[in-house]
Amino acid sequence: MKHTAFIKYLALLLVLVLGLPLFAGCASGDTMTTEVFDLTNPSSETSAQWTVGFGQAILPYPEDSDEPIYIAGYNQGWEIDYILDEQRASAVWLDCGGEGVLLIGIDCIALSSKTVNDIRTDLAAKCAEWGCAVVHIYATHTHAGIDTLGLWGPVCMEGKNSDFQQILVEGAFDAACQAYENRRTGTLTYSSAETVDSLRDSRDPQVYDPFLHQLRFKPDDGSDGTRIISYTAHAESLRGDNTFLSRDFPGEMSNIFKAETGDNMMYMPAAIGGLLMTRDFCQEMGFVTYEENMHYTGRRMADYLLAIPEADEVVVEPVMTAARTCFTAPLDNTAFMYYRFLGILDTSAVPAESDTGYALETEMSVVTLGNLTLTLIPGEIFPELVYGGYFDDTIAASPENENPMPLVEIAAQYGYGNLLICGLANDEIGYIVPPNDFLLSEEAPYFDKIDDHKGENHYEETNSLGIRTAHRIAEAFEATLKALNEAGK
After folding, report:
1. Most CB atoms within 10 A, among 32, 237, 365, 476?
2. How far apart (Å, rounded) are the C-alpha atoms in residues 283 and 144?
């Protein structure tokens, strides 16, 4: 991210010297509260079965807006030049005889908790009418969409377009309504496909999940099915010089599934911190443009899933539970504080012990589907914090700092397995970095990125809350699973 040094330090000086109030909120301290949702079938005489509905709304480009429209993901102040394909809001309704869960995916870079809460507020009356226990909203993390966080406007300027923000909220509402109206009974299956030479991990250790994970719903009436795909990759196959609006390769996958199978598709970014992205196939495939690279990437990923034999799809038992933990994470990042001072970020925070005197309020959620554990994380978590990974003094930049127990090990201790990860869910708190590989510039921490003793760049720390975030995520995950177990006894 680019900054103008004089302006950023002047703004930070004003914040620190004048003590200007930056955040609203009345709570304080190290808080964590967990809620378990009752999704049980109200009639023990009725056999449980899956009921699933899909809805989708195009989020039209606000051509008549009086405000500039910036592309998010790489450079500041870059406006969109051309529309390859428009962003969408997709929604899936899930229930197995009791109250339901709504999953809403937005084709965008990320969503703040304020935008998530705006969508939930709009849907509150409908959810009460429908019997929807909880709504989860996530971003597909396309780097070719309109700025929905505000970070990619010109230096020191808000980058969001208010007209598009309203379009986004209304589109999420429309998609959710369609998903409820389109409910069908049917069979839910799980399958996975290993991708080969398809990912690039920019930081050691080389730890990531190479599998495409697929939940596939087949309605009893033979109507269009629904696929929910989770994969460990940023949606940025168009790369950094792109100024075209696009859903990137997940949109291409969606188009392929619709054209060739009739199925609808939602894409979930998994543990993509680190930085995980699809490989650049241009040179080896002889492509001239990154648009070709995007089409090829989507085709390649879709083909992996289309090749799965139906006999290999495992039926998911129609049993569902859900819980959510609201918690605070220390805000040590003074750059984030600076963005808030300028009105760029609107994330909720409260007074707490941290380098800035504040903590962000956020949430972690779990939805179990049969023996699958869908884990919704409010940021871009490094894969080694989920799956574990080997670190020693020659690899880790800060080996004196201890990492939390990996999420898969925490899950196993509570009897949960088969983790499916959905990142950037219900909030965007930035990169969630392993503490023993966390490195900051001594001269300008969080403002300037730095290289470690191996020459490896530590950009991700500049867009993290701080070194303690990983432990708070692990603690919230454990609290969520513990509450689910206690509720089931």
Report:
1. 237
2. 21
Q: Do the beta carbons of residue 208 and residue 275 sit within 8 Å?
A: no
Residue pair 132/98 in contact by the 8 Å Cβ criterion: no
Direct distance between the N- and C-terminal alpha carbons of the chain, in angstroms, rounded to an integer: 49
Six token digits for residue 268: 């979930």
Q: 138 near 106, Cβ under 8 Å?
A: yes
Q: What pLDDT score does 44 carry?
A: 59
Express as a percent the part of the chain with pLDDT over 70.
93
Check if the beta carbon of residue 33 is closer than 8 Å to that of residue 364.
no
Angle value at C-alpha 228, between 273 and 41, nearest 5 degrees: 115
Strand partners, 52: 94, 184
Which of 390-411 are b and which e, b meaning 16 or more Cβ less than 10 Å from the residue's Cβ? ebeeebbbbeeeebbbbbbebb
Mean pLDDT taken over the chain: 91
The residue behind tokens 């990142």 is: 423
* DSSP character at residue 425: B
Inter-residue contact 255 to 265 (CB < 8 Å): no
**What CA–CA distance (Å, rounded) separates 5 from 301?**
41
Q: Across the chain, which distance is largest between two alpha carbons, in Å?
A: 70
Query: Which tokens go with 365?
Result: 């959620």
* Residue pair 72/149 in contact by the 8 Å Cβ criterion: yes
The answer to whether the beta carbons of residues 187 and 48 sit under 8 Å apart is no
What is the token pair recorded at 277? 């992205």
Rg (CA), the chain: 22
Cis peptide before 205 (omega within 30 of 0): yes
| Cα–Cα–Cα angle for 126, 131, 135, rounded to 5 degrees | 70
Dihedral over alpha carbons 465, 470, 474, 475 (to 10 degrees): -60
364 to 288, 299, 367, 377, 473: CA distances (angstroms)? 42, 32, 11, 5, 7
Cβ atoms 104, 141 nearer than 8 A = no
For residue 260, count other CB atoms closer than 10 A to its CB: 10
Instruction: Say which range, 96-105, 159-168, 206-215, 384-393, has the weakest mean pLDDT.
Output: 384-393
Token duo for residue 63? 């051509």
Q: Is 141 left (phi over 0), alpha (psi -120 to 50) or beta?
A: left
Distance CA(452)–CA(18), nearest Å, equals 35
Query: CA neighbours within 13 Å on the CB side: how many for 434?
Result: 32
How many residues are listed for the chain in this entry?
Answer: 489
The 10 Å CB-count burial string (b at 16+, else e) for 137-167 is: bbbbbbbbbbbbbbbbbeebebbbbebbbeb
User: Rounded distance, CA 395 to CA 201, Å?
Assistant: 14
